[in-house]
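REQUEST ID: PR-0412
SUBMITTED BY: lab tech R.K.
PRIORITY: routine
TASK: structure prediction, single protein chain
INPUT:
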Amino acid sequence: MSYTVGQVSGFAGVTVRTLHHYDRSGLLVPGERSPGGYRLYGEADLARLQQILFYRELGFALEEIAEILADPQADALALLRARHKALVEQMGKLGRLVEVAERAMEVQQTGVRLDPQERFEVFGEITFDLSYATEAGLKWEHTPGHQEAMSRAASHSKEDWVRIMGEAAAWRTELVKAFDEGEPAQGKRATALAEEHRQHLIRWFTPCPPAMHLRIADDFADDPRAFALVVPASEQRPGLAAFLHAAVRANVEQGASEGEDR
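STATUS: complete
OUTPUT:
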């Protein structure tokens, strides 16, 4: 069975102009012609076209494809290995470009005005997941607390961030230590750490009444991306997020029972 150039163009996903070019260059010369001189493609032609499209998709130049198809003894495997290596290297470069783009978007969405080198120096392992930044922004964008936190984050200098992260690291060390030593989440030590975290937020970002702090802790318990903001993966333990959440809840309840206006 034979097919016209228009039919082949339709089901192969290439333009008629491309097929004409393949014919003129000798890469794919249709095996038949109609009485009127029109190109007709048979099964062998379609099989060759499939090979051409395969190699083209891998990035081979048409001249390279012609050489491969012209020589049955050509070492196609060696050529494919070389192309595979080139593609892997290209993927690495593209991956780095994607990371740079994500970091750039991250800066815009988190309000942190530091260049990449400064961010690495200050934040270390603490990372702000871009998908979480987007979701959190949509979730809280209309709340005064979120707007103020973003504004204050944008106003902090590198020196401010060094102090902020230093405080956070010291607090995190004590949190992990309390958890590892089996302190109860409702105990004095754990609730004091919960209150220290709340005061840290108030000092550097936004007024944080107990109810708001509990909502933040809810995110820590429910979303690993949120918890990674306060405890990097390398320092986490199973149950630590739930421990912090319970400590925050206990601190809120103790404050309410004592009638404190915090």
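NOTES: DSSP finds 13 helices and three strands in the chain.
REVIEWED BY: pending
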